[in-house]
Design brief:
This protein is an alpha/beta fold. Helix content is 39%, strand content 18%. It has one domain: ATPase, V1 complex, subunit F (Rossmann fold), CATH 3.40.50. It contains four helices and four strands.
C-alpha cells in the first residue's frame, strides 16, 4: 500500500501507522513513487494528486480521499471511505 497526498494528509496517515505515506508536491515525484509499485498495488490518493497524475486511473486499487476535512459533507463520509480503504473502523 502507498499513500500519495498533500503534506497534512500524508502526515496524518503516517501518524495512524501507514508508513508508506508520501507528501507529494509534483507530478514527477508522484510518477517516481508509482514506478516502484505494482499495477495491482493498493493506492490511497487525494483528489489533488488524482488531478496531478491522471494515470492513477489506470491502477485497479485506488481509493480517492478529498483533500481536506472540510470537503466531506459529514464525518460519516470520512469514516466510510476509511472503512473501505483499510478494512476497519477509525474513531474520528
Amino acid at each position: 500500500m502507498i499513500v500519495l497526498a498533500n503534506e497534512e494528509f500524508a502526515l496524518g496517515l503516517r501518524l495512524a501507522g501507514i508508513k508508506n505515506s508520501h507528501a507529494v508536491s509534483s507530478r514527477v515525484q508522484a510518477i517516481s513513487l508509482l514506478k516502484k509499485m505494482d499495477k495491482d498495488a493498493f493506492i490511497i490518493a487525494t483528489v489533488d494528486i488524482m488531478d496531478l497524475v491522471p494515470e492513477l486511473k489506470e491502477y485497479e486499487n485506488v481509493i480517492v480521499f478529498p483533500d481536506t476535512l472540510k470537503d466531506f459533507s459529514k464525518i460519516d463520509d470520512l469514516q466510510e471511505i476509511t472503512r473501505k480503504a483499510i478494512g476497519g473502523e477509525v474513531q474520528l
